[in-house]
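*** Protein under study ***
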Amino acid sequence: MTQATPRRAALAAWIGSALEYYDFFIYGSAAALIFSKVFFDDSDPATATLQSLASFGVAYAARPVGALILGHIGDRFGRRRIMVFTLVLMGVATFLIGCLPTREQIGGLAPVLLVLLRVLQGLSAAGEQASANSMTLEHAPENRRGYFTSFTLNGTQFGQILATLVFIPVAALPEEQLLSWGWRVPFWCSVVVAVVGYLIRRHLDETPAFQAQVDDGSVPRMPLAELFRTHWIDVLRVVGAALIATVSTIFTVWALNYATSDAVGLDRAVMLWVGVLANVVALGAIPLWARLSDRIGRRPVFLVGAIGSPIMIFAYLAAINSGNYVLIFLAGCVCFGVVYSASNGIWPALYGEMFTTRVRLSGMAIGTQIGFAVAGFAVASAAGIMTDDGWLGLQGWVGVGIFTAVLCAVSAISVLTARETYRVPTAELGRRETAGV
């Protein structure tokens, strides 16, 4: 393996994830700002908003199913095939969302078709990160696995920036144009995903670790059976740790909807810019946290994010409630751009190092996607918490902050039970004899 190979794998993961999650995140912006008026019955705005945000979570419910299927295929037939397939599926599904007729045109069939295509997005996302993370980890130098695997999440953040930047001029359109054709443009642009993603990834070499299994005939015939027989505790550990993603969904979707609602009344375009700047900060923070994890270990870096993020979510929501844009930008960039990046940037290495090559892709896919499913529906749960009377006698946004903090606590506890693996050789990762390392 040449020195260029890890860089090519990281670049393929970065670009592919950016394109894939551009598609995934434009749905979140549309669900927060538009779909309640286009696809759901807006005679009751509160209910329509809840249904729209729940449709965002549907993809997260589909992701565990996709993880089971794509995880098996990736551990049985290789990482590269999954990386190509997931991009094409995401691009097609997202383009078709932009072509859907509205509820006014075809009635109740419109939200049904929307949800079905959102399910396809979820199936695609289930295999994307796990395959890209496995590819970069297994190509990376042993002392830089944290850094190279962080490119996947760095690409994800760039995809979110791109999605938000596309939505800023769209959101500024007059209401009539926005609801008739304007919202469709970002979804139509996703056709590029299918073409660019295929061209980038089709020539990428399979990882040395997986190819070695192919050469000696040791590829497992039933990876899922082996996974749940030998690594079921690690799968549960990843499920709990992955709940940290609640910070992302609350920040990017629920807080956007809350800030632009009649109750707060902040400007849509300004709040979208908060997301852009926070993600720009994350682009710089993620590789720095990843490099630190290669020096001091995965667990301490992850815990900085798991403990610090709920504190900063309170600060961000309080800033939104105050209506002070300076505080909103500052709290948003620190919360999502800096603190959350500590966990977000190093989980690909932390989770991937829990498993052997034989079950790595399926272990990461299943564990993360179950945790992400909870995080996806956290948006709808937060919308339910926001009632006129508050939650448990508290203001609604305070209840949302407490809800987020509880899930982050589960994430922190899960990681505290994990072994430290940053110094374990790649060939020995996931083996029982390294459990105490």
In short: Residues 45-77 form the longest helix (33 residues). The radius of gyration is 21 Å.
